[in-house]
Amino acid sequence: MFPLYDENPTRITPYFTYGLIGMNILVFLHEVSLPNAQLNQFLSQYAVIPQELTTNLSGEWITLFTSQFLHGGWWHLISNMVFLWVFGNNIEDRLGHAKYLIFYLACGALAALCQWFIGMNSEIPSLGASGAISGVLGAYIIRFPQTRVMTLIFLGFFITTIRVPALVIIGLFFVQNVISGVATLQTAANMSVQTGGVAYWAHIGGFAFGVILAPLFGLFRQD
């Protein structure tokens, strides 16, 4: 299931959602322009490397934020940006521009820490906006659970679109990550985009913190 758009108009122009999408695209275009050796150096410097974070938190904490703007491939980038495009604008609308940016970055950093906790001694870089976007999804599902989302469905060779409640598409995303995260718990330290794996616990952590933090940032405030 792949979201295309939601039926949830906003009252503001979501400048920070657009800006975050633009920054992610620009950073990825820089990544693909680098030769392999320079790319590996770039990722090592700005992605979260759990072992280095464990041994040098004071020097590596900034990667909890810089890693949110790195991606391991075109599909990784496109899927993340589509989810941010569909769901981010309404959360920015409810929280306000500044609080939304703080919320987004905080969810991403806390999500990275969740993945780090699973494999503190891993040497494999962890990167991507998925943790922060999972926080946005967590906020969306508790604020707009019944909002209809036009969704692309792949059933083998059959492709169609249907309108489903946000509760369904986001709920399935979370359940899938929980099942996969538990199933891969023993090898979670080795899961990253770079190895073809998925940082499920960053997704789970980001989602959970989104549910917890969004109300504190004013998700349910009455205007």
Task: Characterise this structure.
There is one protein chain. The chain is mainly alpha-helical and 223 residues long. It is built from ten helices and three strands. The protein has helices at 15-33, 36-46, 50-55, 57-60, 63-66, 74-95, 97-118, 130-143, 166-183, 200-216, and strands spanning 2-6, 148-155, 158-165. Strands 1-2-3 form a three-stranded antiparallel beta sheet. Helix 1 packs antiparallel against helix 6. The longest helix is centred in the middle third of the chain and has 22 residues, at 74-95. The model is unreliable at 191-196 (pLDDT under 50). It is a multi-pass membrane protein. Residues 59-217 form the Peptidase S54 rhomboid domain. It comes from Nostoc favosum CHAB5714. It is found in: Membrane. This is Rhomboid family intramembrane serine protease.
Short overview:
One of its GO terms (molecular function) is peptidase activity. This protein has 223 residues and is mainly alpha-helical. It has helices spanning 15-33, 36-46, 50-55, 57-60, 63-66, 74-95, 97-118, 130-143, 166-183, 200-216, and strands at 2-6, 148-155, 158-165.
